[in-house]
Amino acid sequence: MESPLYIVTFILTMGFATVVTRAAPFMLFSKQGEHPVLIFLGRYLPPAVMLLLLIYCVKDINWFVNKGGINEVVALSVVTIAHLLFRNSLISILLGTGLYMALRQGVI
Amino acid sequence: MTVAPPPSSIEQTDLEQSFTKDALKTTLPVLFGYVPMGMAFGLLLADQGYAWYWATLMGLLIFAGAAQFMAIGLLAAHAGLFEVAMTTLLLNSRHVFYGLSLIHSLKAKGWRRLYVIFGLTDETYSLLTAHHATSNQKYQTNEDEGKFQFIITALNQSYWVAGCTLGALLGSIITFDTTGLDFTLPALFMVLVIEQYKATRKLFPFIIALICAVTSLTLFDSDSMLLISITMTLVLLLGTQQFQAKGVIK
């Protein structure tokens, strides 16, 4: 177990870095908020980053070993279908996670 | 018998009450989202052997879902503080761009303003922008709007902290097989990908991201994928913007 001092500095570092990302636009761009490059990035960087984060989460799957990736593909498909049907983030996430846990723990 | 509402002191109280009522109603979907997500986080952290109050402290001082989930792995790896800071900055870099559109509509002042900026999660941001678009007739002064924005942020964080704490407490009391619980994170990103597509109706950001992810995973160490692929994506998006501005592509 890590020392309490390490955990506290860890939490403060992560908290500070988070605040930096949230406060940056108010400190930096309050004058240039209308700049076309910023508007373009404001619109199209988030969708790209979301996909990168999704890929980052599943990048360590070994696709070539026994059931490699099947659970993830099935559960993410359920998330997608549920979200297209109900468009309720909570329902989509809970359904997908519940199914994934059941698959991983051999319940199904 | 109906009596006309007497002087303004009562109206003021009515307004304050309707503030809280409105804020509770507005934040209800976030309550149902944050409590289970916070609990999933708390369970996972407690599962690693951490005391419950660390989950509470993280909910209070970090208040960022994806970063906190990432923190579990970083803590386990005893990551250096520079790595922690860089990973968090990258993970939350989207806030920089989300915040841009809020510059003109954030009405909270003073310490309330600082708190709203601190608590500007994806969900808080969504509620604030959605509320700003529909509430102009109700809260006529910027002061009222600002107070309302503050209450929304505080309620959201209280749900999150409650969820984190509850999950960690349950996790240290009952033994529960959490295998696969961390799937909440990819599931969340899947949902956000769909939401982003619905908002932009454009495929090119996703195509660019896919190309960059595959390139970075093929050519480089998979641990540095996030940093490399986001940088590549940023460069390609800037290029796209330049071409678009010059009229080369639509």
Question: Which characteristics define this entry?
Answer:
heterodimer; A: 108 residues; mainly alpha; 2 domains; 4 helices; B: 250 residues; 11 helices
Structural summary, described in words:
The complex is a heterodimer of chains A (108) and B (250). By secondary structure, chain A is mainly α. Chain A folds into two domains: 59 residues, no CATH class; 48 residues. Chain A is built from four helices and no strands. In chain A, α3 packs antiparallel against α4. The mean pLDDT of chain A is 87. Chain B has 250 residues and is mainly alpha-helical. Chain B has a domain of 167 residues. Chain B contains eleven helices and no strands. In chain B, α2 packs antiparallel against α8, α3 packs antiparallel against α4 and α6 packs across α8. The longest helix of chain B is centred in the first third of the chain and has 40 residues. Classes of the chains: A mainly alpha (108), B mainly alpha (250). The interface between A and B is large, with 71 and 90 residues.
